[in-house]
């Protein structure tokens, strides 16, 4: 049959090879092993099937053996090939037959393209649409070498302290705050040494809430970092005598001299330059560590400045100039200018070079909302200090932190600028709604409260009653109605509320009210018994109002920032997630100082909203 097939079918290479091999093997076998003597063959033989089976034709027998062997080999190769194909199919991902499908949202209000699993009829909607539609958060991330979709209902953190509140310790969770790094901080004033806010006025103003938070954050970090503040590197303190003059480069007519100063009762460096723009008097620092806090004592006899040359990781050199004028912040090319004011006499200057550089770079590169250009810049080298003008300088140091200097600067600002009403007026207008704005000169109960919290801590730290007296005076505005220039509102002619933004009608902002209560609470713990009555009455009155009105802020899936939908009959103002989690964190704090279960149960329910839980429907 195989030979017959060869005549009627197109032979394959494998078939030809088998035939040739079979023929050769048959000939060899017949030649060497199958030769039979002619005499042994019968002249006439009748065919016997049994004899054929016992004595087969050698050529046919050998051909059958070869053919059988080839078939077995082909079968084995086929089986192996089949097994390889099955393994490959097993390792390949099974395809899901997705088909495009139009997703019609709200009767045609929006249409997006989705996908339909034709096996299960399960529809799929793009996550980018879901994020915007339901205001959720998430992205694709790689975890354990596998891509996963991380889905978050909120983007903010809830703070819940495990320790009993200590009015002398960190303020709430403010050790995690970096106030000067906020985009709404234009700079740290060289004259006042506190933040200048660009909120509501891009030219800058002093915002008491921001200043109090700046002080509280540094005080809190000081409490946390007590044993890990690092060393202070001294570059010049004058005590080496005339030999220290060799550390300075002063080419004629510029001069530098180590002298004894009676006012400071120590040796200092006296300097003179012929103008404010030449090479100046130079002290090389060449510091490549992460010690960015520059401190020195300075006394100028006229126009002058202290300049610091800095290099960043993009190999660009910038110079920060501290001048004795009232300029807030300005730039010229790669140079940044900050005014120290025109104060006479000796003054200690403490600056965070990294902060000053970044604030200047934001102006150089443009006031973008997300300054990507500056976020990756790192100070790699603080190269030198250059002096211009005429004056004296002492105690030039670099360190990692100066928490005490920064929080005391904020406390001193509050003492210095408290007015005769006991408050800190805000110098910019605040627009709330169309047709409703607060004119400049308004007070904020939140500012009053956070100022009390900072001033009482400054009192604990220094034992100076000046700070305590300022905190006690700050309670006066709590008793003055908002329409009369104070901060007190009254809900339904019964419940007193201390307003963050004193409007008429009242807003009833929740977080600002609670901060005002915390300030009163701190004051009641710090004041002597004969002076705490007023603060205690105001605190108890406010807590009574909070317990009655708190649940009005519950939206069933989040919280309201204020009650304008009640007092103004305006559209509700839902709290962003960062404000919602702030509400929850503040309730956790209140549950630690007041055992009313309302605060804890409400905090637990509001925490559920951050996980997607909602109030039950009817």
Automatic annotation (TrEMBL):
Its EC number is 5.1.3.17. It catalyses: [heparosan-N-sulfate](n) = [heparan-N-sulfate](n). The keyword Transmembrane helix applies. One of its GO terms (biological process) is heparin proteoglycan biosynthetic process. GO terms for cellular component: Golgi apparatus. GO terms for molecular function: heparosan-N-sulfate-glucuronate 5-epimerase activity. Its main location: membrane. It is found in: Endomembrane system; Membrane. Keywords: Isomerase, Membrane, Signal-anchor, Transmembrane, Transmembrane helix. It is a single-pass membrane protein; Single-pass type II membrane protein. Pathway: Glycan metabolism; heparan sulfate biosynthesis; Glycan metabolism; heparin biosynthesis. Pfam families: C5-epim_C (PF06662), Glce_b_sandwich (PF21174). This is heparosan-N-sulfate-glucuronate 5-epimerase. It comes from Actinia tenebrosa. The lineage of its organism: Eukaryota, Metazoa, Cnidaria, Anthozoa, Hexacorallia.
């Amino acid at each position: 049959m195989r030979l017959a097939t060869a005549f009627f079918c197109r032979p394959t290479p494998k078939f030809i090879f088998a035939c040739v091999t079979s023929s050769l093997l048959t000939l060899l076998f017949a030649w060497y092993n199958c030769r039979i003597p002619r005499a042994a063959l019968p002249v006439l033989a009748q065919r016997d099937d049994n004899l054929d089976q016992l004595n087969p034709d050698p050529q046919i027998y050998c051909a059958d053996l070869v053919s059988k062997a080839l078939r077995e080999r082909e079968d084995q190769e086929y089986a192996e090939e089949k097994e390889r194909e099955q393994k490959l199919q097993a390792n390949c991902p099974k395809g899901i037959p997705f088909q495009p499908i139009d997703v019609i949202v709200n009767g045609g209000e929006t249409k997006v393209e989705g996908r339909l699993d034709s096996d299960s009829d399960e529809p799929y909607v793009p996550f980018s649409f879901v994020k915007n539609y339901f205001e959720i958060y998430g992205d694709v991330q790689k975890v354990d070498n596998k891509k996963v979709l991380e889905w978050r209902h909120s983007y903010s953190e809830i703070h819940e302290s495990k320790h009993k509140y200590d009015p002398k310790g960190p303020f709430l969770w403010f050790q995690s705050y970096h106030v000067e790094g906020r985009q709404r901080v234009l700079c740290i004033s060289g004259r006042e040494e506190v933040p200048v806010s660009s909120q509501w006025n891009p030219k800058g103003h002093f915002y008491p809430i921001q200043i109090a938070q700046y002080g509280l954050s540094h005080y809190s970090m000081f409490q946390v970092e007590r044993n890990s503040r690092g060393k202070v590197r001294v570059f010049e303190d004058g005590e080496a005598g005339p030999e220290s003059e060799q550390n300075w480069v002063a080419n004629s007519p510029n001069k530098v001299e180590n002298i004894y100063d009676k006012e400071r009762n120590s040796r200092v460096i006296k300097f003179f330059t012929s103008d404010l723009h030449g090479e100046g008097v130079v002290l090389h620092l060449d510091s490549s560590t992460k010690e960015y806090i520059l401190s020195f004592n300075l006394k100028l006899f006229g126009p002058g400045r202290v300049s610091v040359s800095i290099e960043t990781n993009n190999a660009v050199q910038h110079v920060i100039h501290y001048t004795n004028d009232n300029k807030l912040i300005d730039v010229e090319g790669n140079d940044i200018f900050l005014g120290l004011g025109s104060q006479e006499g000796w003054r200690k200057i403490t600056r965070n070079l990294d902060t000053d550089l970044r604030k200047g770079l934001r102006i150089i590169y443009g006031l973008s909302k997300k300054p990507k250009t500056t976020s990756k810049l790192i100070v790699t080298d603080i190269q030198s200090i250059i002096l211009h003008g005429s004056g004296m300088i002492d105690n030039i140091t670099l360190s990692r932190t100066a928490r005490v200097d920064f929080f005391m600067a904020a406390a001193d600002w509050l003492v210095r600028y408290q007015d005769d009403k006991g408050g800190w007026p805000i110098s910019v207008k605040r627009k709330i709604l169309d047709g409703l704005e607060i004119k400049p000169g308004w007070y904020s109960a939140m500012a009053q409260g956070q100022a009390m919290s900072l001033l009482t801590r400054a009192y604990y730290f220094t034992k100076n009653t000046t700070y305590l007296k300022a905190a006690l005076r700050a309670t006066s505005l709590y008793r003055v109605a908002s329409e009369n220039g104070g901060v007190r509102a009254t809900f339904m002619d019964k419940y007193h509320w201390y307003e963050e933004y004193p409007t008429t009608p009242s807003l009833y902002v929740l977080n600002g009210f609670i901060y005002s209560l915390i300030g009163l609470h701190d004051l009641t713990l710090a004041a002597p018994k004969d002076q705490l009555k007023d603060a205690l009455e105001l605190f108890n009155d406010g807590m009574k109002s909070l317990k009655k009105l708190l649940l009005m802020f519950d939206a069933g899936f989040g919280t309201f920032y204020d009650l304008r939908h009640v007092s103004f009959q305006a559209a509700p103002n839902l709290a962003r997630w960062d404000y919602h989690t702030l509400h929850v964190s503040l309730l956790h704090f209140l549950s630690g100082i007041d055992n009313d279960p309302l605060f804890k149960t409400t905090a637990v329910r509001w925490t559920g909203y951050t996980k997607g839980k909602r109030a039950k429907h009817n």
